[in-house]
Amino acid sequence: MEDPGADTPADTPADIAVVGAGAAGLSLVHRLAYTPGPDGTAPTVVLVEAPEGPVRAPARTWCFWETGEGPYDEAVRAGWDRLRVRGPDGRTAEAHLGAARYKMLRSTDFAALVDTRLAPLPRVRRLTAVVDRVRDDPAGGAVVHGTDTAGAPVRVRARWVFDSRPPRRLPPARSTLLQHFRGWFVRCSADAFDPSAVELMDFRTPQPAHGLSFGYVLPLGRREALVEYTEFSRTPLSPEGYERALRDYTGRVLGLGGMTVTGTEQGVIPMTDAVFPRRAGRCVFRIGTAGGATRPATGYTFAAVQRQSDAIADAWRRGRVPVPPAAHAARHRAMDAVMLRAVDTGRVAGARFFSDLFLRNPPDRLLRFLDGRSRWWEEFAIGLSTPVLPMLRSAVELPVLPRRAAVS
């Protein structure tokens, strides 16, 4: 029951409320703002975003494949038509993307573009608040409860609510690794980078005892780049550990001289075969990473978020219940679960596994798989290029393994 006291906040009504202003929340609001419903009008939307501080996610970089012009090209920082993968022994595989581009988008640039587009739309309203709970309303719809920056209560009542806040705890899983990384934005005193190609995975880094590590280079010019050190393992490194790894990679491996670090970014992405429920109530749904948009084998999320947003907007247009769709096909999730199990148990050497995928498969086939657009016969061929017996053992045991809660 609601507290009928004098401090009970007035309702902010909406057709749709979206909690969180990251990639998932902003993408969905942007898509809905231009989507008429069955009555010919766009929904009234309230976006509830966290205030500046520890609750709000820091600035980050998103990358994705896209063919032709995209809806956010105005904010894309850079794009490339070639990708490279370097094995631990230095062997190199190069993929030409053809009509597609590998695009880099900074979260701050993305937010600024969406903010500009939403500002003149009267049916979109923004509130700043820390959300503490979202629940179905017995009278219909759902209610978002929060607190604004002045400490006053906030309440939004909507027909549908989409919650993009990261889960406090990952769902139970058979395998869970973390993709954790730290990146330096660097500027060199001389030409040091090929601006036409991304170093997608450079395994010439010291490999950890468990999992794998690699360098990742996004050139922004001949003298500027975002250089990241990434690990797939069970626990993140200390700040000092990331700094040592980046100094080693930029110095020993890349040989960068006269280098200045102009900025940093850091993050952790779950890589898990856990099942993320996309429905949290009759009228409450989860989107983004909280709704299973992150690809378990790669950590890529942005493209899947766009697919989710398109499907939700289409359901609104048709007057249907807007349940977010599964972001990745069931067979791809199954294949990812096998890979995670094989790497997590150490049955396959992670660095060799990923570098051989690129060395032994046509680049266009592998990129279609990573983007979730491959056919079953292509996936069968990819499977044959992996260590078959360890992968088969992992596949056979998965159905009988219990799902366990992740250790905090």
UniProtKB/TrEMBL annotation:
Pfam families: Lycopene_cycl (PF05834)
Descriptive protein name: Lycopene cyclase
Species annotation: Streptomyces carminius
